[in-house]
Amino acid sequence: MAVVERLAIVGTGLIGASVGLAARAAGVGDVRGWDVDPAALAIAVEREAVDAAGSLGAAVSDAELVIVAAPVAALPAQVAAVLEATGVGTTVSDVGSTKTPVTRAVSDGRFIGGHPVCGSETHGPAHASGGLFRGATWFLTPDATTDPERYRTLHGFVASLGAVPVAVDPEAHDRLVALTSHLPHALANVLLNQAGASRVDGHEPLAAAGGSLRDMTRVAGANPRIWVDIFLDNAEALAAALAEHRRRIEQVERALAEGDAGFLARWIGEASDNRRRMLADAYEEPGMLQRLRVHVPDRPGVLAGITQALGAERINIEDFELQHLSRERGGTLTLLVGGEDEAVRAAAILEAQGYHVVISPVLE
In CATH terms, is domain 286-361 a member of 3.30.70.260? Predict the structure, then answer.
């Protein structure tokens, strides 16, 4: 039996629709959805992520659990509206990337903040995947007013989607994601804008960009409708992270000015150790991450078809990158999949669709 039998999702973008797909795969029988954007809701229904509700009230009526997947600026008002439309038997959570503003604005024991640490630079229900949460940390923010039974239900639901629920203080959460998510997004934008605004003896840096710039800026230019609100919602913690980043940049500048090779060697070695720790601690079976390289044609719907085909078989794409060659030659799609068996399954699915796939381990 599923942990929750009646689920409502308010907001059917990438994360909301992915929650619906994952919940159906976990056995939740009644998954209703509502969105202020009828087009997004229609795509989520077409993907079979939710059953459409005609209004917010119709979506949340009699739901055991409501997940609010609105942009962070709209979360306090949207969560308040859901709480007003539901009774004492309903638990409400959200999936916002910041937690302090919404938890301060909402003082109701039925609400427990949440944030699944996953997603990608893509957005919209067309890119939703039921496997998106597998192995991902899903932060929860219970407090002294939280009913233990409600928390157990939400904790169990999150775990049933394949995620790892972790309790955290809202302010600690925002300082943490400022370092691990918001700072990388900000720096990716800085790097690309710096390169894009420069000329070197008449040469355009972006036209001669190497793999390092491409890899470091994968998330640059992510949906501004979402990220402007995230940056402003977490402005204090992000500003502190940027200040610490500036201090570390100044250390590197001093080492360069003084020709301090020893510092630079230690600095690179420390980064190598920290990356290994990150891969070992933050990713499921890091030694088993596999890279799939797929040649794809340049035509609409190719990426959506691949992600939907793999998602339908519950194969989680940990990350992906598309290197476009030309309209005639198409490009190379690189997928990261956790586990050798999963990689072989994914390759078989794609090869059955006519793609050529090369598998290699990410970590030697």
Answer: yes
